[in-house]
Amino acid sequence: MKIEVRKVTKRYHLDEALKNVSFTLKGPKIYGLLGRNGAGKSTFMDILAGNILATSGEVLIDGENPFDNQTLSSLVCLIKEGNNFKRELKIKEVIRIYAFFYPEWDQQLAEQLLHEYNLKPQAKIKTLSKGMESALGIIVGLASKAPITIFDEPYIGLDAAARKNFYKQMLEEFENEKRMIIFSTHLIDEVSLMFEEVLILQEGRLVLQESAEVLREQTCAVTGKVEDVEAFIKGKEVIEKKQLAGMMTAYLFGSMQEAEEQGLKVEGIPTQELMIHLTEKKRGA
Ligand SMILES: Nc1ncnc2c1ncn2[C@@H]1O[C@H](COP(=O)(O)OP(=O)(O)OP(=O)(O)O)[C@@H](O)[C@H]1O
Q1: Ligand 1: does its nearest atom lie under 6 Å from the Cβ of 43?
Q2: What is the Å distance from ligand 1's center to 121 Cα?
Q3: Which end of the chain has the smaller Cβ count within 10 Å, N or C?
Q4: Measured between alpha carbons, how far is residue 43 from residues 16, 23, 229 in Å?
């Protein structure tokens, strides 16, 4: 499936949650949608799921507007960080509703995951802990088999071991049957290896869209004497530089090998740190 985002702005009264954002996503792929609080991630996901309209510009899924579009709504499954289900419903009723709604629903997978997460079909949503409710969201998202599955921080209340289990299940599902998964998270380093492409939003603007491979392999942190680092980074795309006691560290797009040949100390940059530097750079620009 193809998602085209064209000059999208979303305004809430005086607040601009998205500012003239344009990009294209093509599935099947696992996309990481990153950004700090209030960057506009949830707003974008809500527009994509057809829950709200952009103030201007358009989002198209295979050429169609998702707002109030019944055909598309059965192809897109959005799981948010909470309040996905009516509190009075039982788990088995939630499962029945989603099974009815999503044509590719995988009942066997849903039952297997309910068992793994130890969720009782008779239990009412309002009796579940935060972690159990998140687990149900994860189960529904995975079992929906929706060609566009969107997870917006879906793991609130799950501990590190349960989150790891979820990432494993998600990857297995993706390998079994490829689809487009858009995943928004704060816990970037936990999941960064899963992403094939990363988008970073900052204050409503898209500051980066890049394949994760390029980010991992073609960015590095170079440290050495100020004059050596300055000479090395001349003409290169520098993300950030820091100076202390005659030494400099520069974060840049460039090959590690080239820096090593110059006798500089070179390290990879964890995605989390890269995101912080990229968003700070744009803020200062
Ligand atoms: N319903 C709303 N009414 C008014 N303002 C809103 C609404 N939803 C979002 N906003 C504002 O739009 C901006 C973007 O919010 P959004 O929730 O999309 O960001 P986010 O990147 O998902 O953040 P977080 O990670 O904290 O959920 C914020 O300034 C937020 O206050």
Answers
A1: yes
A2: 33
A3: C
A4: 10, 15, 40
Closest protein CA for atom 30 of ligand 1:
38
For the record, the structure tokens of 104 come out as 């590719």
Pocket of ligand 1 contains residue 27 by CB under 6 Å: no
The CB-side HSE value for 13 (13 A sphere, CA atoms) comes to: 0
Q: Which pair of tokens denotes residue 84?
A: 């996905």
- The pLDDT-based confidence of 140 (bands split at 50, 70, 90) is very high
Global ipTM: 0.96
Ordered structural domains, the chain, with CATH: 2-212 (3.40.50.300), 218-284 (3.30.70)
Measure 182 CA to ligand 1 centroid, in angstroms: 18
Q: Atom 18 (ligand 1): residue with closest C-alpha? A: 40
pLDDT band (50, 70, 90) for residue 280: low
Q: Out of 34-38, 65-69, 204-208, which region has the weakest mean confidence (pLDDT)?
A: 34-38
197-202 and 29-34 beta bridge pairing: parallel
pLDDT reported for residue 60 = 97
pTM: 0.88
Residue type for position 220: C
